TrEMBL record:
The keyword Oxidoreductase applies. Keywords: Dioxygenase, Oxidoreductase. PANTHER family: PHYTANOYL-COA DIOXYGENASE, PHYTANOYL-COA DIOXYGENASE DOMAIN CONTAINING 1. InterPro entries: Phytyl_CoA_dOase-like (IPR008775). GO terms for molecular function: 2-oxoglutarate-dependent dioxygenase activity; iron ion binding. It comes from Neolewinella lacunae. It comes from the Bacteria. This is Phytanoyl-CoA dioxygenase family protein.
């Protein structure tokens, strides 16, 4: 196993960058070798099992609670997980897709959709982020091959240009309202499985969702959110953004670069 590959350059084609800019997302095969994915799967799974505090049975949770188990900033909990989260390869891809000079980490999160877990409703991530521009991107790293029956990430191509629905938190309402608006405006809907080692990058404002996990296996995913290294903190517009400011950019003043100790630069040209 060659762990160093996660810090080696990855050459994107001009067509891939153009696809991301147009569609708001890009799926890329063979970014991380299968044996490296399996290595991190074992480490992240053990840490999630250790830290998970959700005791409510699946059937008694609301739609958000049924969507996934969610644990944040595992890079601060485990040195091995930090290696993946601080991967120069992934941060370089994020930098090149956004066409910026470099990226900081906003935060990471493990998203484990349990066997029998429900849908993740339509939403845009940046609804929750008090950040001054759209130069944000999330890498979605499945820790196993993810067929359709496990609920892989789905995207509405080009929907980062739509404003209606941005004000909605993840909920039954967001699923209904955004789905209908995307249907009326005929935005292409991409639903595809993920091979092991395949990852996706999606922008902060592109609308996306995931189906239910109809298997008895856990759909394990690690995500890392990147932001332009020069992005600034803006005045929060909702309670989620207020919470994110205090949690992920503590001590940063409004109008200043989001450069708290939790937001180091991970790559720059």
């Amino acid at each position: 196993m060659n762990l160093s590959i996660i810090n080696q350059p990855f050459a994107l084609t001009p067509a891939q960058i153009a696809d991301y800019q147009r569609n708001g997302f890009l799926k890329i095969k063979e970014v991380i070798p299968p044996d490296v994915i399996e290595h991190f799967n074992a480490i992240i799974s053990a840490k999630v099992a250790q830290l998970n505090k959700v005791a409510v049975p699946l059937e008694e949770r609301d739609t958000y609670g049924k969507a996934f188990l969610q644990l944040f900033n595992l890079w601060r909990e485990d040195a091995d997980i930090k290696e993946l989260v601080f991967s120069r390869r992934l941060a370089q891809i994020a930098t090149d897709l956004m066409q910026v000079d470099g990226v900081r980490i906003y935060h990471d999160q493990a998203l484990f959709k349990e066997g029998g877990g429900g849908i993740t409703p339509w939403h845009a991530d940046q609804h929750y982020w008090p950040l001054s521009s759209d130069k944000t991107v999330t890498v979605w790293i499945p820790l196993q091959a993810t067929p359709l029956k496990m609920g892989p990430l789905e995207f509405s191509a080009g929907s980062q240009r739509i404003v209606l629905g941005r004000e909605l938190s993840i909920s039954d309402t967001s699923e209904k309202v955004i789905r209908e608006n995307l249907r009326i405006n005929n935005f292409p809907h991409t639903i595809e499985p993920f091979d092991i080692g395949e990852v996706s990058f999606h922008s902060g404002w592109v609308f996306h969702r995931a189906g239910a996990n109809t298997t008895q296996e856990v759909r394990k995913v690690m995500t890392i959110i990147y932001m332009d290294k020069d992005i600034k903190l803006k005045q929060p517009e909702n309670s989620g953004q207020e919470n994110d400011w205090k949690t992920w950019c503590p001590g940063v003043e409004i109008g200043h670069v989001a450069a708290s100790p939790l937001n180091p630069v991970l790559f720059e040209h």
